[in-house]
Structure formats: C-alpha cells, structure tokens
Design goal:
The protein is mainly β. The chain has two helices and 47 strands. The protein has two domains: about 400 residues, Galactose oxidase/kelch, beta-propeller (Methylamine Dehydrogenase, Chain H, 7 Propeller); about 100 residues, Immunoglobulins (Immunoglobulin-like). The structure holds 2-acetamido-2-deoxy-beta-D-glucopyranose (4 copies).
C-alpha cells in the first residue's frame, strides 16, 4: 500500500522570515509554498482611505477630504452637505468618511462636515477618537468619534473652531495623563494640548520646527513623534531629532543628524517607528527608534521644476536613545521607498509597505510604485522581501494592523478629485488585506488561541490570559505583548507602540487542555499610556489573534 498522506516538513526554523517555505511532500520532492498573500476585501469603499484608525470594537474609521468632489458613496438618508467655502463642490451629497466592520467586511457612510484633508488623530483613554485639523473650514476643527455597534447610528461630532492654531499636516501623540499633544502643521512652529486649557491659550512655541523647515520644500511636516518611557517626547523633523520635554518646553537632548543628509518628513515622507519596549528584562527599558526611506534632498523641487523623479532613499537609521553617546546605525532596505508605511506586527517585526520608488509625496509627484512589502526583523537586523505584490498604493494611501494579525491597506489618491481615468495612478477606492507569513495554515499546529482574557490590565498588577494551542512547546517560546492601534496617514502611524510584558507563570489545565498565563501589566503610563490595546500571545514566533484590553 502506498501511503498517499502527505507529510509537510518545514526545513527551516526561522520560517517566519520568509514568505516562502520549502516543503517536502514526503517523496523527496521539495516544492515551494507561498506563505503570505493579499486579499481584495472590497473593490470600492466609496472613498479613498487616506486616514485610518482601528477602534476598540474592531471597526475601522476612515476618511479622505470633503473638498474632493463627489465620492463613490452617498451620505445616509439622502442627506447633503452645503458648504459655501468648499473648493470643489459646494453642494455635495456624497460621504467622505466611512466606518468599516472588519468581521462582516461591510461599511457604512459617516457624515463629516468640515475638511479633514491631511489631518491627524489619537484615541482617548476611553476609546473615543479625537481627530484634529485639516484644511480650509477644517483647519481648526476638533472632531470626535465614539465607537458604537455597526447597526447603531454613531457619527462624527465636530467642533469647527476648537483648536488654538491651524493644524494641517500636524502629528498627534496621546500623553500619559490621557491628554493629546498636537505638534506642528504647515507654517505652525508650535504645539498645543487637547483638551484646550482655555479659549485664550494659543499653544506653545516650538522653534525646532522653524529651524528644520526647508523653505518651500518644508520636509518637516507630519513630524515623527514617539512618547518615551521617561515621559519626554522623541521628535524627528527633516534630518534632526531631539528629546523634548513638552511640559517645560525644553530640548533635553539633541541627537546627531541622520547620516546622508536626506530629509525624512513630508513631502520627503519616510517613516518612523518606536521599536517594541521590552519589560521582560530586569533592566531599564532601552527605547530605540527606526526611521526608513524618504526622498533625497532636493527631491521635491526636482519634481516641481519638472526635471523628473529622483530615486527614493533606501536607507534606514536606528538610534538607541539610552546609549551614552547615541549615534545612528544605518541599514539598507532591499527596495528604496518613499511614502512607505511602517507598522509593528505582533511578532515584533516591522512591515514596510505602500509607497513609491521615485519622487516625493504630493499631487502627481511620484512614480514606480513599490508593491512588495518588506519585513524587517529588528533582532537580527534582517530584511525579507515578500513575494506577492499589492496594487499601487501611492500618495494618500495608508495601512493599519488589524486585531486578527492582517494588515489593512487602502487609499491612493495622488491627485486632486476622484480621477479614475486620464491620470498616471487612478484614485483607488479599494480595500485590501495583507496576510503576513505567520497567518499561513503551516503554523496552525503551534498557533495560540486566546480563549479568555482579563478585560482590564492595571499598571504593575498581574492579569490572566487563558489560551489553547494544538501543540504547546515550551514556556520560553511564549510571549505576551500589547500593541496600541495607530492613527495612520501620510506614512506615519501615530501612537503606535508595542510593550512586551513580563510573563509570570503558565499553568496547564489537564481537563480542558488549555493554559493560563499570568503576566504583569505595564510599569507606567509613560511606557503604555492608558487606553485600549490589542493583546497578543506569541508562541514560537506565531501570534494569536489580538484580544482587546484596557490599560489603566
Ligand atoms: C463605485 O461604486 C460602484 C458600486 O456602488 C462600483 O460599481 C464602481 O466600480 C465604483 N467605482 C469605482 C471607481 O470604484
Ligand atoms: C470620552 O471622553 C470624552 C471627553 O471627555 C467625551 O467627550 C466622550 O464622550 C467620552 N467617551 C466615552 C465612550 O465615554
Ligand atoms: C480630475 O478630475 C477633475 C474633475 O473632473 C478635473 O477637473 C481635473 O482636471 C482632473 N485631473 C487630472 C489630473 O486629470
Ligand atoms: C481556561 O478557561 C476555560 C473556560 O473558561 C476553563 O475551563 C479552563 O479551566 C481555563 N484554563 C485554565 C488553565 O485556567
């Protein structure tokens, strides 16, 4: 009798670094198995997903801009918007924001009145999204969105004149006390705090932004902000970076310029990430920043003077802030990229996707879409190019990590209006999901599944997660981590952070063949500001789906 049952043997231990695995069919004939994949979720969500935020009920709020002309989705209930200051159409019955339900893969229109173009956001500790600024009648708006069930009617609530200053291309960061700092914006060399302390407050000066502005090239919009474990902010603008004490409006430390002299912020548009904060070691957390890609110096004026599209930057810089004399360690991405998005995956790897190989951010400013994601492994500093391409995701595309471990990708609108023809890169209204290699069925035998978890995780207090897995290996291969969902736009995932938590014990329940993990909540609100996080278990490099926990 011939045994026809195929045994799949994986020949590599570091399987997750590859998008392909070499497998054997038991006959000694290795074949390649595609581990990663893209899925077209919806060919049109009616708008271009320029800004995205995952909410703690698993829904994703998305929006583009109100002065873009007629979108491909109508406002609910035959509603229309009349806005005399709108630069495209004053009478518009189409929606410019939608709420996407991940589980049912459906969406509904939301009603936003003021212009959200190139704005920013952060989620309050109670789960309400605060979204700030934009253009024209939206430049000083604060808007709120409180998550509700999909069939319920929750919608945007807007405060058009809320902000102290105009905030167009600003960056937001949630603070340890639950307030939000809003930094910069076009011609705004200052920052302000939400909620606004009083109606007379005008915000605080921030000369660093004036100093780092490259004239009409700017190159310091959407500054990269990361809250550090000591409570200060890391701010990166153009080529310079500092530790900033926003409470005293004082620069605590300035780092060397990133080598090479290439600007990294809009419209040069590289990206930046705070690498996972590790609480498992019994030493102080050593925060580390990584900045990747962008356009070379002069790239923007090169495009604007119609000389062409300069090849994008392929370098990344890593900066360990706690070193006595921190210096950038440079690395080279296998694919040069401008307008890439950098996201932390549950595995603590970094995915870099979307964007272009030449040009800069801005209308019609880029060429050569880079459609293959790259996954970077911070631990051994390796980049892997993924094998499957997406559609071109140029200017105004975005990406967020979903609780189920997929990466949601949408947008691409590299010109004014929703132009689907007669343009180099048509406006893209579709929504795609990228399945990183770890989601492949190949790893199902060791994939942990969270059965139950405490809903509240308190600082320095232990909590429980109950899980099962077909095959449990060893405790050393198990890790518990929390990941804050990002507000992503213009190549920067605001508020994204991962904290790897201390595991205290793992107990097996013989009867149910499940396991109970006891782990320690984050040490401080500076390490993990209060709010909703996705909790992941990772077992031998394979993550569970995320469970929502509230850190408080
Ligand atoms: C607009 O939406 C309709 C369905 O409502 C769809 O058939 C059409 O392809 C969409 N257009 C674009 C450009 O996505
Ligand atoms: C969260 O707090 C904000 C500001 O106080 C408030 O407007 C909002 O309604 C709150 N959201 C929830 C879900 O309670
Ligand atoms: C895009 O469409 C608008 C409105 O239909 C039109 O005015 C504009 O010229 C188009 N842009 C390009 C680059 O073709
Ligand atoms: C995990 O949860 C299940 C269902 O609530 C329970 O039966 C089991 O005993 C738990 N296992 C552990 C190890 O606590």
């Amino acid at each position: 009798m011939i045994n026809t049952k195929k045994t799949l043997i994986i020949f590599t231990t570091s399987i997750l670094c590859l998008s392909l695995a070499i497998l054997s069919d038991g006959q000694g004939n290795p074949f390649l198995l595609q581990l990663d994949r893209w899925e077209m979720l919806l060919p049109s969500i009616g708008i271009s997903a320029m800004h995205m935020q995952v909410l703690h009920n698993g829904m994703v709020i998305m929006f583009d801009r109100t002065d873009f002309g007629i979108s491909n989705i109508s406002l609910a209930g035959g509603m229309c918007r009349y806005d005399p200051s709108d630069t495209a159409v004053k009478f518009d019955c189409s929606a410019h924001s939608v709420l996407y339900d991940v589980v049912s893969n459906t969406f509904r229109p939301l009603n936003v009145q003021t212009d959200t173009w190139c704005s920013s956001g952060a989620v309050l500790p109670n789960g309400t999204l605060v979204q700030t600024g934009g253009y024209n009648d939206g430049e000083r708006a604060a808007r709120m969105f409180t998550p509700c069930g999909y069939t319920q009617r929750c919608d945007w609530i807007e405060f058009p004149q809320y902000l102290a200053q105009r905030r167009w291309y600003a960056t937001n960061q949630i603070l340890p006390d639950g307030r939000i700092i809003v930094v910069g914006g076009r011609r705004q060399f200052n920052f302000e705090i939400f909620p606004r302390p009083d109606s007379r407050s005008r915000g605080s000066r921030f000369e660093f932004l004036r100093e780092t502005s490259d004239g009409s090239n700017e190159n310091n919009l959407y500054p990269f902000l990361h809250l550090l474990p000591d409570g200060n902010l890391f701010v990166f603008a153009n080529t310079r970076s500092i530790v900033f004490d926003y409470k005293k409006n004082r620069i605590v430390k300035e780092f060397p310029e990133i080598p090479g002299g290439d600007p990294r912020n809009y419209p040069s548009s590289g990206s930046s990430i705070l690498l996972p904060l590790d609480e498992t070691k019994n030493t102080n957390i050593e925060p580390e920043i990584m900045v990747c890609g962008g356009a070379p110096k002069g790239g923007f004026s090169y495009v604007k003077s119609r000389r062409g599209f300069m090849p994008a930057t392929s370098t990344c810089g890593r900066l360990k802030l706690s070193n006595p004399n921190p210096s950038w360690e440079m690395e080279t991405m296998p694919l040069p990229r401008v307008m890439g998005d950098m996201l932390l995956l549950p595995t603590a790897d970094v995915i870099i996707l979307n964007g272009a190989g030449a040009g800069t951010a801005g209308w019609e400013n880029a060429r050569d879409p880079v459609t293959r994601p790259v996954i970077y492994h911070p631990f051994d500093r390796r980049f892997s190019i993924m094998s499957t391409p997406s559609r071109p995701r140029m200017y105004h595309s975005s990406a967020v990590l979903l609780p189920d471990g997929r990466v949601l990708v949408g947008g691409s609108n590299p010109h004014v209006y929703y132009n689907f023809t007669n343009v180099e890169y048509p406006t893209d209204l579709s929504l795609e999901a990228y399945y990183p290699p770890y989601l492949s069925f190949t790893f199902d035998l060791i994939r942990p599944k969270i059965l139950t978890s405490d809903k509240v995780v308190s600082y320095k207090r232990s909590f429980n997660v109950n899980f099962s897995t077909p095959q449990f290996l060893t405790v050393d291969l198990l890790s518990v981590r929390i990941l804050a969902p990002s507000f992503t736009t213009h190549s920067f995932a605001m508020n994204q952070r991962m904290v790897i938590l201390k595991l205290l014990s793992v107990e097996r329940d013989q009867l149910t063949n499940s396991y109970r993990v006891n782990a320690l909540g984050p040490s401080t609100a500076e390490i993990a500001p209060p709010g909703y996080y996705m909790l992941f278990l990772v077992h031998a490099g394979v993550p569970s789906s995320g469970a929502w926990v509230h850190i408080e």
